[in-house]
Design a protein that fits this description.
Largest sheet: 14 strands, mixed
Oligomer: single chain
Strand content: 25-35%
Number of strands: 26
InterPro entries: AMP-bd_C, AMP-bd_C_sf, AMP-dep_synth/lig_dom, ANL_N_sf
Number of domains: 2
Structural class: alpha/beta
Protein name: Acyl-CoA synthetase (AMP-forming)/AMP-acid ligase II
Keywords: Ligase
GO molecular function, one term: CoA-ligase activity
CATH topology of the largest domain: Rossmann fold
CATH class of the largest domain: Alpha Beta
Length: 489
């Protein structure tokens, strides 16, 4: 791999373009405008911070976020993008782990002070870019493949957030791999509803920047009308979402189901398993739109596998095979590859695998073994090498000594007409040790009962997989990324 600053790689063929990079609100910004801002801010950062110094970034998706995010990495420092809803306890933990002394915070968040940290906003003179004459794009300091570019904090299956360290080489490798299978070009226009502090959202920025595409930023997915309007008004060719986005569009929006999106060429889905019923519903409604099922982790920069849309009919339920440059295996507890149909842990190897967890050598050793990323996800592999997710290791429910994966039960329940969403969990039981509870969100007006849920499970599943308890909720609690909040059921 060529030694290169990841930001210079992204701007390599696009920095001087007059075409639009960002559409945010009613404003549009060209590649030339954005790259000029990034260069100017990165020069200041380079003069005032040491190489590798950590700098926090807290902002919604907007020009401010993109400028700071790119400028910090271009200057050779390490950007730490954080959720706009981060709790004080977690912010204190991040500051303690990173030793960050400065944070760029968007003024809309009303965070003017952080103890022990200098706060900079877009009101700072730093962001008075003026109308200086364009002199062309200049490269930043050359970075080694293994130089850390960013740290993304993720709770994953643990209560305490872990800082995933991603290198310049990681970003370059994963961006190139994604572009290879999605075949994006400068005509692509992506509607972005995923926050940029999330690796899936950042991958949209990286890939479209690299090819000269356009990003339409929409920070209000819950106002579905604005999402549908933007898709058509800006002639978006792509949309990316996590399961909850597709479930809401399909089961709560008649306007989407009956809509016509002539420019939408493809959609991508990652961030958890979207049940087969929803995928089938989408492709039956919009057969002309390519549907890419994908799988990844922050620890893999973003992406690990994808299923080509033409394979969906015969391989529905699969997350596909490794993306270009990534090798995936399913292994047993001894690290040996499992036979077709047997369950094991999914492990991965490639240039997109993280450097490790910040300040946690033990967790890093447990997660990366002999160069292989142990994902913590259980799955099976078929004879043709296609991988199927079963569950997270920590999601497995043990009912009377039998191991049960929640996704199989959820799949059955969401096939019922009137179900918007479902989550299956284990709870303590005096006789079984652990029993199964199904938490169900139904459509407004749907006349579903607890018995309806149990009956469909009894028809299609073994008796020990039938939920002992069924709870109806108005909605699932989700994070700003759209993913279900663990422990909120």
């Amino acid at each position: 791999m060529i030694k290169m600053n990841a930001v210079d790689y992204l701007f390599q063929d696009t920095a001087n373009l007059d075409k639009i990079l960002l559409i945010s609100g009613k404003k549009q910004y060209s590649y030339r405008e954005v790259s000029a801002r990034v260069m100017q801010l990165s020069e200041w950062i380079g003069q005032n911070f040491k190489k590798g110094e950590k700098i926090l970034l807290i902002s919604p998706n907007n020009l401010f976020f993109v400028t700071v995010y790119l400028a910090v990495m271009k200057a050779g420092c390490v950007v730490v993008p954080l959720s706009t809803a981060i709790e004080k306890s977690n912010l204190d933990l991040v500051i303690g782990k990173t030793g960050a002394s400065h944070a760029f915070v968007h003024s809309s968040l009303k965070i003017t002070e952080i103890e022990g940290v200098d706060v900079l906003s877009e009101d700072s003179p730093l962001f008075d870019f003026g109308d200086e004459k364009w002199h062309g794009y200049k490269s930043g300091p050359e970075m080694d493949d293994h130089d850390c570019a960013q740290i993304i904090f993720t709770s994953g299956s643990t209560a305490v957030p872990r800082g995933v360290m991603l290198s310049h080489g990681n970003l370059v490798a994963n961006t190139g791999s994604i572009l290879e299978y999605l075949a994006l070009d400068g005509d692509d226009i992506m509607l972005v509803v995923l926050p940029f502090f999330y690796c899936y959202g950042l991958s949209l920025l990286h890939t479209h920047m690299k090819v000269g595409g356009t990003l339409v930023l929409n920070n209000s997915f819950m106002f579905l009308g604005s999402v549908l309007r933007d898709l058509n008004q800006y002639r978006c060719t792509g949309f990316a979402g996590v399961p909850s986005h597709f479930q809401i569009l399909l089961r709560k929006s008649d306007s989407f189901r009956k809509g016509h999106f002539p420019h939408l060429r493809y959609v991508t889905q990652a961030g958890g398993k979207l049940h087969n019923a929803f995928i089938q519903e989408f492709i039956s409604l919009f057969p002309e739109i390519k549907f890419f099922v994908m799988y990844g982790q922050t620890e893999a920069t973003a992406r690990l596998s994808y299923l080509p849309p033409d394979k969906l009919p015969e391989k529905i339920g699969s997350v596909g095979k490794g993306i270009p440059g990534v090798t995936l295996k399913v292994v047993d507890e001894k690290g040996e590859m499992v036979a077709s149909g047997q369950t094991g842990e999914i492990v991965a190897k490639g240039q997109n695998i993280m450097l490790g967890y910040l300040g946690d050598d033990e967790a890093t050793r447990q997660t990366i073994q002999n160069g292989w990323l142990h994902t913590g996800d259980l799955g099976t592999i078929d004879r043709e090498g296609y991988i199927y997710l079963s569950a997270r290791k920590k999601e497995i429910i043990k009912v009377g000594g039998k191991r049960v994966g929640p996704k199989e039960i959820e799949e059955v329940i969401v096939s019922l007409k009137g179900v918007v969403d479902c989550a299956v969990e284990g709870y303590e039981h005096p006789e079984l040790g652990e029993a199964i509870r199904a938490v169900v969100v139904k459509q407004s007006g749907a006349n579903l009962t607890k018995n309806d849920i149990r009956e469909v499970c009894a028809r299609k599943l073994a008796s020990y997989k039938v939920p002992a308890d069924v709870v109806f909720k108005e909605r699932m609690e989700t994070s700003l990324t759209g993913k279900r909040v663990k422990g909120s059921l």
